[in-house]
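Protein Record: Sequence and Backbone Structure Tokens
======================================================
Tokens: labelled as protein backbone structure tokens, with as many entries as the chain has residues.
Question of interest: how does this chain fold, as expressed in backbone structure tokens?

___
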Amino acid sequence: MLSPMTPLPTQRPRRLRRTPGLRALTRETRLSPEQFIFPMFVHEGQSDSEISTMPGVLRHSIPSAVEKARETQGLDIPAVILFGIPDVKDEVGTQAYADEGVVQRATRAIKEALPDLVVIADTCLCEYTSHGHCGHLHEVSGQWTVDNDPTLELLAQTAVSQARAGADIIAPSAMMDGQVAAIRAALDGAGFAHIPVMSYAVKYASAYYGPFREAAGSAPSKGDRASYQMDPAGGYREALREARLDVEQGADYLMVKPTLAYLDVMRTVRDAFDLPMIAYNVSGEYSLIKAAAQLGYIDERRTVLETLTGMVRAGADAIITYHALDAARWLRES
């Protein structure tokens, strides 16, 4: 029992947490389906196929991608981002920039059916090359890596092809030096000066990409991506330098990928630049939650919403997330 002389607190923060309504009134961070971007894998097949490492995520046929995009829009999610999986891969990823490539055809189909839905085209070559790297591969001092400058031309061709197909945003993810400038110049020269570039500005060589590589069949057959994606221990200076270079080259959005292990980096980039900030809640982050939920270790709904809220709190204006449809439904219910 408290002594009569014990001073009681005059400030009582719990007063503002007593009921759901009071908590809602004082929330600083708010989560909405309008902040989500839903990623979709599109392949050449006539039917959908499951991805063993990503429960609930499919490789869609083009007709299925249109229906999934329709479902996405119906949940008030404003955008999808497309990743293509071609039947035929080669050394230079020809199907990435083919006008009849799978992403180009899927973009046209979705925009025809749903003209108001924003379609973002991931602009990279790793899903399209036979070796799984993000561009023109060559060997330097016994190490396999991507030849930067020849790859810029391929990325520029890909961006123009995607814009010609109707993509609303071009999203280069190859982490080549100068890729934003090359793509901006190519888009402007082809009459697409109005198409924005969403730069994967700060993208790490992360273990969290494992499920994606299984989904897209894009694991490198030799070498790794550490020579062009960022070192996870690289620090803030490297992140700010990469972001600054993309801003100077004409990027319209900045992205940090992955997000969960790099929330501090996203906050730093957010504070340094005034462009819209995109978080990519990547495949490994998704699969960790799904696996733990299936084992009964965590509450999936609460964990997903808490995770996404943390990304917004760290500075994200929008989140690319495989949880998008479930999260939108949960937010509607609550």
